[in-house]
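Same chain as my last thread, 278 residues:
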Amino acid sequence: MIKMMHQFNKTIDYLESTFTSEVDFKKFQNISGYSYPLFSRIFSILSEITLAEYLRNRKLTLSVDDLLNTDQKVIDIALKYNYDSADAFSFAFKKFHGNSPSEVRKGKNYKLFPKMKLALKVIGGSQMNIKIETKPSFKVAGVLKENIDSNQCPSTWDELYSKYSFEQLESFGNGQSLGVCYENEGNDKINYMAGYNVLDDAKARNLGLDILEVKESEYAVFRLRDQSLIPFIRHGNICLKNFSRKMVTNIQVYQILKYIPKMIFMIPIMKWSFGYQL
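reply #2:
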């Protein structure tokens, strides 16, 4: 667990070091152990904010220091933080801070968005309940979209539910809905399936659904609760990545427990002679 937190925090350190340059995706994967899109999904689950939003808020926070403590022009600060123009930077700045760069420079209020670190306790005082579990192999049948951006995943669910009823989707398995994503080699796109657990392959194929098999693997299992998960109770997400030529899986399963949404988040791990590594 300590190793996982260290790895996560080192990845955030690296991303923050690239605010005025570009991310080296090979170096990023060496540090994090994940592709960029897969880490982004893990980040959003653990932090309840997207990675893109976090990085944008951090840049806009740091830009205040440039405004208040240097005489740099707004266009120079904009370019420093990889904005295409002063207008684009000013628009994002005012949306976040509530005041324009020139107004903040003159003494108006601004916001601070602190650097994030993963710790043993999440904000709000809730302990992260984590244990190691081995999960048997299983199959998922659904609609598969290839080479897409991760923000297109919800539309895959829309397509699935527009073509099939809940009764049809629950008829060939145990009724558990799952999302499956795995990255493409050499780019930041993903392949994504919206589907349901399969026990009867033939029945799923007769409906015209694609089928994926998730191999048995060992996971670090997090159990979290979050009221914001209510809209997503109908389905979970599984993220697959190719690591050392083995298909491994990040799993998120949403359930209702006494009217409170419960999320089970599973991260694949490799067992070393001295412990576990994510």
